[in-house]
Amino acid sequence: MKEWSSFVGFVVKEFYHIFRDRRTAAILFGMPVIQLLLFGYAIRNEIQEVKIGIADLSRDAVSQAITDKLLSSGTFVLIKNLQSPAEIEGAFRSGAMSEAIVFEPASGKEIQREGSMDIQVITDGSDPNVSRIVTGYTASVVRDYLSEAATTIGAPKGVVPVPLMMFNPGLKSVYLFVPGLMALILMLVSALMTSISITREKESGTMEVLLVSSLRPIQIIVGKVVPYFLLSFINVVSILVIASLVFGVPCRGSVVLLMAESLLFIITALSLGMFISTITGSQQVAMMISLGGLLLPTILLSGFIFPVASMPLPLQVISNVIPAKWYLIIVRAIMLKGASFAVLWQETLVLAVMTVVLIGASLRNFSERLQ
Amino acid sequence: MKSAVLVEGVTKKFKTVTALSNVSLKISEGELFGIIGADGAGKTTLFRILCTLMLADEGRAEVLGLDSLKDYRGIRSRIGYMPGRFSLYTDLSVEENLKFFATVFNTTVEENYELIADIYTQLEPFKKRMAGQLSGGMKQKLALCCALIHRPDLLLLDEPTTGVDAVSRREFWQMLGRLKEQEITILVSTPYMDEASLCDRVAFLQDGTILAVDTPAGITGLFTAPLFAVRANDKHKLLTHLRSYPHAGSVYAFGSTVHYADSRSSISTEEIEAYLLDSELQDIKIEKIEPGIEDTFMALMKTDKENLHE
User: Fold this and answer.
1) Which of A258, A340, B220, B274 is the most exposed place for a label (fewest CB within 10 A)?
2) Hey, are the CB atoms on A13 and B89 less than 8 Å from each other?
């Protein structure tokens, strides 16, 4: 019973540290909300109000109908009626527009005579992401027009793919960011904060006094980890609540399963933080390792922003050891696809094995004496 | 009497530096034992070995009758350790620090309050203040309270008075005297030689070797050469002049005077005065004095160095 009260005293002391240091408290509670709002509102992959110029050399019903359809979609804004294709380059250079569409002369007659016509779509290739999305949008608007107008101009020939985006029909990027953000924040809070708080005690010399106390090493480590475990869990819940209330991100699978998997991932991250603190005695080094060795890979290699499948092979191999990659797969599957544990047991197993290995390594490395 | 600390032939090396070489010590229960040595003499390493934070490369140590290697847990719960660096939580208040250390030692502040009452009453007016904002002397008093809160049988204080003002230092030693009455064995290290006379026994540590272990009186008894305090208008010239005297033993500045030990067993002040009169020094005053701890330590250091060079 006495051992228990000394452990509780230790945890209480940890909470004092967290709440008395404004920076720590700000990172713990401000960051998740700010990041979620940033990613949800400011950073989007969807394109809106693309400035376009149209050079309509055909000037007939067909070209007019396609133009109307483009502009009525809300995605495009006409800023310039170009008189000749020669004006296009200048307009791109000045940055006045992102896309130009050219209708060849007499294209309306051509489609009625031959069943096909050419529309040239020119984009500003200096921004490849925007170009790719804009051309895709334009093509789908034109396809729409063709299928609607099939009765008057005759059915289009050839194979027409009809895409349907399952689970996220609007291709909303916030659906993509929420799981990634959860992984990122849990990594930051759990791994970075624990490793810093343990190395801080080593640096200030208080670890020396703690070791020469009745506390057992396991009590010291667990006592360090418990507060961050609780705070991380609060973060998971608040992210999910904001995501669902503000951005309408659904959770189609079991919330209990999602929570359980999140708890597992928090433990993985905590054991990573523990491990880092056993290999260094300086806060600075711990921070460098956590930021460089954990945060950047979590953002870049986990599939959060860049798809793992499109990475070069060496990076794909490296991405396997990044816990966030597996957690991301799990969260996306549960939230968006409503997947059950039967589908996700392999990813869960990977995380579990990682955790066990890390905890084992930390316990082996943790020294009850000074080096 | 049973020994509280027993050190036998302990050697500790750090890469290229030998911090302790073949150190042996025996400290009895209830003793106030001082370890005197300059910075880098190996005091902190010895303390860390005794509180089981470090392992000796050679030799063995027994603390409170327990082996420092096998029974380190038993030792840890029965000693109070105060490291040389201030090692409390600066973002916790005085009260919270004390409470925290009481709980991690499975006790409460109330349980052993009478032991620290004497010290803690001085801290009481500041109990809500953060430990980081205390003065140097106050910090040391708080650290002492925290090390005492579980009523340890042995108190290990590593340089508790370094960087503390003269008044606080005196108060600190008065507290140690009172703790001794409570039958707590105290091992304290200090670079200040004037504090040595306040201990029951002292050990001189120099470059990882113990030069002498004795009572303060016994230590001064080691000094047999006649000693004089010499004064003149130019201290620097006086030093060089005395050092070139063929019979000179140790010669060093001591406050405003120069302490001069002669290598002959009997010598009068007149003889030295006669030698100094040849120089251009004025206002010469010579007085025969009894050696203090510092004189002995200087002499021991000197002979130790000479032995090394031979």
Assistant:
1) B274
2) yes
